[in-house]
Design a protein that fits this description.
444 residues; Aspartate Aminotransferase, domain 1; 2 domains; 7-stranded mixed β-sheet; 13 helices; globular
Length: 444
């Protein structure tokens, strides 16, 4: 397992950097905190974005196959216009009557199962998960939280304590229990459901024995940080049932898979045929404008609202609502989910064909336009597989295509392009990754 906090990062002296960027890096290092890290061995420097493309100061364009924040494309003119129109009138908060806030809230909950009919707005996915944990703990009367073994759920103190992905220096809460997934554990898909339920029930038993109890099962519905373990659909159902049997709530973290990315469903949990108690939203909700939300059942929301205060100056501000409303309009009008499914299938088939020609591709998994590609020859071991994956990422960067890695060993390529990508973008990526794969396997 990798212990590097950001394997695909810039390390001074590792690569030749042009003077312009070297001077900017020096200024950056002289003023920014040490937690900041630049991505790629040779950092990228962008001055504008448009659709699927990012442009450096010299006008070279890079195909963005990684960025799920502007999910409807960089600088989407329709979304930008909606924000500008609202900003030119007023930017208010949720303590004032505002019809557009209510209009959007009604539209948003209308995309969920009918049981999920209340929404509270936040600014980020971290805030959403933080708030969901507060609601779950109050509603359940317990503190324990069950997460997957390499989960990432945010950067606040509370969410960092339930995020094993952040590294050993970030201590997990004593009330957290981690469960393994079938893929990393080497368990077949046929046994995935039984394996997951067994893991969850074991965690429940330990939490109860220690007098902590179970507040929530918190999961990213495609387990993206664990390596994009999307299949088989429904494998989490037994674990969901087990948590509810002991009074815990089920929280679906949709910050990454939500808003149509999985193709056939607006929300990733829909693939598993479960209805959570709380759903957390962030990143693509405003196409780059910071807005998030917790959507949930009335009972826990009301119980929390009656017993605790939650007010956030910027959460639900009218400019953010304008951006989010425009996102939802485009998703429905342009049938973005169907498009994501079609492009995801094109990408998956292309990668599976690539795997038949290159043994360095060990596996391909996807749900719509969220793809995990396992990289490396088995004979090279974990360190060799990781090195190969990182080499591919940086070769692609040099070729003008952006992706990254995921998984405990960082040997899975993480591919999640904006949902507006077209066939020519998919084909460009497939061409580039095949070229990078040949070079990387030869070098490592």
């Amino acid at each position: 397992m990798s212990t590097d906090l950001m394997p695909n990062r810039f390390t001074p002296g590792e690569a030749t950097i042009p003077l312009r960027e070297a001077e900017l890096i020096a200024r950056r290092d002289n003023v920014l905190g040490g937690s900041y890290r630049l991505q790629y061995r040779r950092p990228v420097h962008f001055v504008r974005g448009e659709g699927m493309w990012l442009y450096d100061p010299d006008g070279r364009r890079y195909l963005d196959f990684y960025n799920n924040v502007p999910s409807l494309g960089h600088c989407n003119p329709e979304i930008n216009a909606a924000m500008a129109e609202q900003a030119s009138r007023i930017s208010a908060n949720t303590r004032y009557l505002e019809p557009r806030l209510v209009d959007y809230a009604e539209r948003l909950v209308g995309t969920f199962p009918q049981e999920l009919n209340r929404v509270v707005f936040t600014c980020t996915g971290s805030e959403s998960n933080d708030l969901a944990l507060r609601i779950a703990r109050l509603a359940s009367g317990s503190d324990g939280v069950i997460v997957s073994s390499h989960a990432y759920h945010g950067t606040s103190a509370a969410t960092a304590m339930v995020s094993p992905n952040l590294g050993d220096a970030v201590k997990l809460s004593p009330a957290v229990r981690m469960v393994s997934l079938h893929g990393p554990a080497g368990v077949s898909e046929k046994q995935a459901a039984a394996f997951f339920e067994e893991q969850v029930r074991s965690a429940i038993a330990d939490l109860k024995r220690r007098g902590i109890g179970v507040a929530a099962l918190l999961f990213d519905s495609i387990f993206s940080s664990d390596g994009v373990w999307v299949d088989p659909p429904g494998f989490i159902a037994g674990g969901v049932k087990a948590v509810r049997e002991v009074g815990g709530l089920v929280i679906a973290d949709e910050v990454q898979p939500g808003f149509g990315r999985t193709g056939k469903n607006m929300w990733g949990f829909g693939r598993h045929d479960v209805v959570p108690d709380l759903v957390t939203l962030g990143k693509p909700m405003g196409n780059g404008f910071p807005i998030g939300a917790v959507v949930g059942r009335k009972a826990p929301m009301d119980r929390f609202g009656a017993a605790a205060r939650y007010s956030n100056t910027f959460a639900g501000n009218t400019v953010g609502i304008a951006a989010a409303n425009a996102v939802l309009t485009i998703l429905h009008r342009d049938r973005i989910m169907e498009h994501a499914h079609l492009m995801g299938e094109r990408l998956r088939l292309g990668l599976e064909q690539l795997a038949t020609r290159h043994p360095g591709v060990r596996g391909v998994r996807n749900a719509g336009l969220f793809i995990g590609i396992d990289i490396g020859l088995d004979a090279t071991g974990a360190a060799g597989r990781r090195a190969t994956a990182l080499e591919i990422v940086n070769l692609l960067r040099d070729d003008g295509v952006l992706i990254s890695t995921t998984g405990a060993n960082e040997d899975t390529l993480k591919v999640r392009p904006p949902l507006i990508c077209q066939a020519e973008h998919v084909d460009r990526f497939l061409e580039a990754i095949e070229h990078a794969l040949r070079k990387a396997v030869a070098r490592v």
